[in-house]
Amino acid sequence: MPSSLNGKYCIVGVGETEYSRGSGRTTRALGAMAIRNAMNDAGLAPKDVDGMMSYHGGDSTPSTAIMYDLGIRPNFYMDCSGGGSSTEALVGLAMGAIEAGMADTVAIFRAMNGYSQIRIGGTGVRAASPIGGPDLMKRPYGMISAVQNFAFTFTRHMMEYGVKNEDLAHIKVAHSNHASNNPKALMKQRVTVEDVMNSRWIIRPVAHLLDCCLETDNATCVIVTSAERARDMKQKPAYILGVQGRGTKPGGDFHYQHGPISRVAGHYIGPRIFEQAGVSHDDIDVTGCYDAFTYTVLLQLEDYGWCQKGEGKDYVTSGIINLGGRRPNNTSGGHLCEGYTHGMNMVIENVRQLRGTVDDYCPQAQDGIHTYDYSEGKCRQVRDAEISMNMGWGTPAVGSALIMRS
Question: Which of 115, 315, 340, 374 does the annotation list as catalytic?
C-alpha cells in the first residue's frame, strides 16, 4: 500500500447477528440484518452506501439479493470466494474501489449458516454434495476438513521444534477466558489445559476437540470509507494503516514442494505490512489471529515475527496473549469460543477495542467506561488500545493482514 494511503481510509461501522447453532433464518435474512446493524452503528442510511462486497461461499446469499432488501443501489459490488484470508483482503479491495472512484462507502459482509446448513467441517449437507474440483484430490483419501488439510504443516512443526499439545492448549484457555467476558460468545465457559487435553482427539497429533473452532450460524459486516467522509459518521473511526490481501508462499497450495513445510504465509506478508503501516511489533496493543485451530495461531505468531521460529510455545504460555498481558489476542474469544466467521468477527472486535467500546459485562460499558477487571464475567476492554493487527489465514500457504489505529 503506498504511503499516501496510510490512514486515508477507515472502518466506520461494524455489525453482526447473534452467534448460534440454529439461526432459523436464511443467509439472506442474516446478511441483511448484519449490514443494517453496521449501517446503524455508523449512522448511515441506505442511500449513503454505494458499494457492497462479500466473502461468498457455501450457502451465502449474493449482494444482488441483499441490496434489494436494504434499498441500497450500489455503484460497485463484488462477491468473492477464497476462505479465511478474505476479510482483510476485501478491506483492501474496498479501499481500492473507493480510490479508483467506483464507490464512496463500501459494506463488506459474510453470511453463513455454518452449523445448521453448510458445515465447514465437511459433515451434514456438505458431506452429501457431489465431489468435484479440488475435492477430487482430497476427499477420496479422507482429507475432508481443514483440520486434516492443515495438519501436515503443524505435524512437521512439532517434529522440528518440540511443541507439545499442552502448549497449544494455553491458546484455547486464553481465548475462553476472553469469551467468558463476552455476552455474544457462543461458548462462554472457561476451560483449563486439562480440559483441552481430555477432550477427544480429532486428528492426531495436532488437535483435540477443544483445539478446534466452533461451527456457527451468523452474519457479520464492516463498512469502509474515506477518512474525510468518516468525520461526519456516528462512531470514532478505525484508521487503516496497512493491509495485505492473500499473499502466498512459493508454490501456493503446493507449498510443500518449496521451502520449509512448517513455514506459513505470514513469513512473507509480515515485513510488507509493517513497512506499509510504519509501525513495529512493539507498537501493537492487541491482535486478532485467525484461530481455526489452536495451531494456526501459534504458526502465525511465529511467522509474523512476534517471536522467533520455534519459540511460539513460550510466547503463548507466557501470558502475553491474555487480557492484562502485553498484547492480548482474540479478545472476543475468536473462532475458538465466540463464533466462526472467516475472520470478520476479529476485525469487528479490534475496531471496538480501538474505540474503547467493547460490549462486555462492565456496568457502564455502553458509555465506554470499563473496570479492566478481567476475572470471569467482567471486563474485556484493553486499556488504552491505540493500534491493532489482524492476521487472516486461508491455508498454510495463503494469508492476509490488517493494521489499524484509533
Answer: 340
